[in-house]
Design brief:
The complex is a heterodimer of chains A (about 250) and B (about 400). Among the domains of chain A are: about 60-105, Helix Hairpins (Orthogonal Bundle), CATH 1.10.287; about 110-180, no CATH class. Chain A has twelve helices and no strands. Chain A has helices at about 1-5, 10-35, 50-55, 65-70, 70-75, 85-90, 95-100, 110-120, 165-170, 180-185, 190-195, 205-215. Chain B is mainly α. Chain B has a single domain (about 1-395), classed as Up-down Bundle (Formate dehydrogenase/DMSO reductase fold), CATH 1.20.1630.10. Helix content of chain B is about 70%, strand content about 0%. Chain B starts with a helix and ends in a 12-residue tail after the last helix. The chains are: A mainly alpha (about 250), B mainly alpha (about 400). At the A-B interface, α2 and α8 of A face α1, α6 and α8 of B.
Chain lengths: ~250, ~400
């Protein structure tokens, strides 16, 4: 063993010693630094769960607000904002429900708050009420016209674009620009005030489009014609043509 | 909340098409651009150094030690952008204590440590050991002790010991080349393995990263050599410079072909992402990808180096061309990293819209911090040059 060690070149010995020291330090230090309960439940510290449980609760949930703000809660409960929780707008309220006189919540009165949800964005789902804030009654706070707890617009939207902005924009630049929405969709009046309960109709048959595009009627002159029996005969037209941007 | 609102509202105006709500802001910013750039320089400089030892390219001898020290200086800084980006740098050692083998990112610590300790430091140590001993014998005061400590108080300068040094350096270099490939190939792997992102997800990614790394490393050493040598009032070794430029040229050709291959492959495959990617490349990335990366960073340097070689220009003109080409290459490789990291996040996973990236000046993710991180390796390199002069005339004869 000793004779073996002697044969190793001098510089290599020094490296071996250095490496041994580093390794020893690592082996000594590691158990000190790795928490004892690491790995019990997974690749993490088991007691981290307790730490997380011990964190202060910041949100109170929307049900408790009803106890003291019944009027507001009821109003909101019947409005468009019924699914928007109070604390989304007023911030975490766990302290407020304990110390309601001293801990005043945030009240977002500015325009830039509402547009986080309502600014026009083509990725928002169809029918979600959206505005272009630059042109929608600019410079005025939203809450002068819309009660935040019942934001029903003071008058009903003038046209479909108020809620279907993305479709309206597509149609605006399409061949169908002069075909009004209601020519293809029968929209009941209630759809303007309660859109999720009252749905407009949608075309269901090929013949509907054929009414303009496969017609012998001379009044449709200028509308491109197809032979409805042979043109894409096995599909409905909107499987190939997006009706709002054909 | 208000901060977030104020931060995101102006970004919304730059968004085009259809993006998902959590895609407005990029998660990886300038710091993550720096990280592959810096590791690339390390791997490139090291592979250049290996050419001297493994393939015995004699002409490059003057840059051998310089490349090693350059690799070291940049390697020390390379993890800083990551630590800055993740936050809590004080906890970083934990990835060594409890290795998580199922996370490619967590294993980087080991790739890095292996490369730093088992390859770079060892090679430098063996290469400098004799000189450290000779220097410390002559010097006085602090320097003597620093050099003594660095040599681990070794004192054997017998012929046998020096032969052992040389042999060790060769062995380490041979281990080192795959290690350097691993270090930077790994960075490409991280991007290439993101299945959900068609801009990144490509098996070619590690290889393209690797060759662009070698390009940037050679160009960097060429720059350092051309700046430092006149500062020391020494003549530039034209043989060495020509050789460096030739290698730069060859590797750039490979890199360029690989990138073209990747491009053709994508266009031919025409997966559903091709439309949004071509919109990206012809729009938001046009300047940084087509103009800076391909034209300024690749074609112009390639053309000018080729011209310098073909027309047998006078040395002074050649130097100028090499110098400018190397700077352009650095710009090009930096924007390569930019285009991968930033570009890869600019399009929506819906493939129907583009978002935008706004750089801030202050703050951890801002320009200032990145700039400081970019300057740091140069400061470290200066100190290393002082401690371990890489110049030939500093090599000591055994007396």
């Amino acid at each position: 063993m000793i004779s073996y060690w002697k044969k190793i070149p001098e510089q290599a010995k020094r490296l071996v010693v250095l490496a041994a020291i580093l390794l020893a330090v690592f082996l000594v230090v590691r158990p000190q630094l790795v928490p004892p309960d690491f790995g019990e439940l997974g690749h993490f510290r088991a007691s981290a769960l307790q730490d997380i449980v011990a964190q202060p609760i910041r949100y109170a949930g929307h049900e408790v607000c009803t106890d003291c703000h019944e009027e507001v809660a009821e109003k909101k409960g019947n409005s468009y904002h019924r699914n928007v929780a109070c604390e989304v707008c007023h911030g975490p309220a766990a302290v407020h429900i304990e110390e309601e006189e001293t801990d005043m919540l945030r009240i977002p009165r500015g325009r830039d708050f509402c547009i986080v949800c309502h600014e026009y964005l083509s990725s928002r789902p169809t029918g979600f009420p959206q505005i272009v804030s630059e042109s929608h009654n600019p410079m005025k706070s939203c809450i002068t016209c819309h009660n935040p707890h019942d934001p029903t617009p003071p008058e009903k939207p003038k046209d479909c674009a108020g809620c279907h902005a993305s479709i309206a924009r597509s149609k605006m630049v399409s061949h169908h620009v002069y075909v009004p929405c209601v020519r293809c969709h029968d929209a009941p009046d209630e759809h303007f005030t309660n859109p999720r309960m009252y749905h407009p109709t949608k075309p269901t048959k090929r013949e509907f489009c054929g009414g303009c595009h496969a017609s012998d009627d001379p009044s449709v002159a200028g509308i491109p014609q197809v032979d409805i029996d042979s043109h894409g005969e096995r599909y409905v037209c909107w499987q190939c043509h997006y009706p709002h941007l054909p | 909340m208000e901060d977030i609102v104020q931060h995101l509202t102006p970004l919304l105006k730059e968004v085009s098409g259809y993006i998902f709500p959590n895609e407005i802001e990029l998660h990886w910013g300038l710091l993550i651009v720096l990280y592959p750039y810096l590791t690339g320089l390390v791997a490139g400089a090291f592979i250049l150094a290996s050419l001297v030892k493994v393939f015995n390219v004699k002409e490059l001898q003057p840059t051998y030690r310089m490349s090693l020290l350059t690799a070291l200086a940049f390697l020390i800084v390379a993890p800083l952008p990551l630590l800055g980006h993740l936050g809590h740098p004080e906890k970083s050692y934990e990835i060594f204590l409890t290795p998580n083998t199922s996370s490619a990112m967590a294993m980087f610590g080991f790739v890095y440590a292996w490369y730093l300790m088992a390859v770079l430091l060892l090679e430098i140590w063996f290469d400098y050991r004799k000189d450290l001993i000779m220097w410390s014998r002559k010097e006085k005061g602090l320097m003597k002790w620093i050099h003594k400590l660095l040599s681990l108080f070794s004192s054997d300068v017998s012929e046998k010991a020096i032969r052992f040094d040389k042999k060790s350096v060769r062995v380490i270099t041979i281990i080192g080349i795959p290690s350097a490939f691993l270090l930077h190939g790994y960075v490409g792997f991280i991007f290439g393995s993101v299945k959900a992102n068609p801009f990144w997800s490509s098996v070619l990614m590690p290889i393209v990263f690797l060759f662009s790394a070698i390009v940037s490393g050679i160009a960097l050493v060429l720059l350092i050599y051309m700046i430092v040598t006149p500062m020391r009032r020494k003549p530039i070794d034209m043989l060495c410079l020509n050789k460096l430029a030739s290698y730069l040229f060859y590797v750039m050709i490979i890199d360029f072909s690989l990138e073209t291959l990747d491009f053709i492959h994508r266009v031919y495959e025409s997966e559903e992402s091709i439309h949004i990617i071509s919109e990206l490349v012809s729009g938001k990335l046009f300047v940084s990808l087509v103009v800076i990366q391909v034209l300024i960073g690749m074609l112009i340097p390639l053309g000018s180096i080729a011209a310098a070689k073909i027309f047998k220009l006078p040395d002074e003109l050649k130097k100028l061309i090499y110098f400018v080409a190397a700077i352009l290459v650095q710009m090009g490789i930096f924007s390569t990293r930019w285009n991968v990291v930033i570009g890869g996040q600019l399009f929506s996973k819906s493939f129907r819209g583009l978002t935008t990236y706004k750089m801030t000046f202050f703050g951890l993710e801002g320009f200032l911090v990145s700039f400081i991180i970019l300057i740091m390796p140069i400061v470290i390199l200066y100190i290393l040059f002082k401690l371990l002069p890489p110049w030939d005339e500093a090599r000591q004869q055994v007396t």
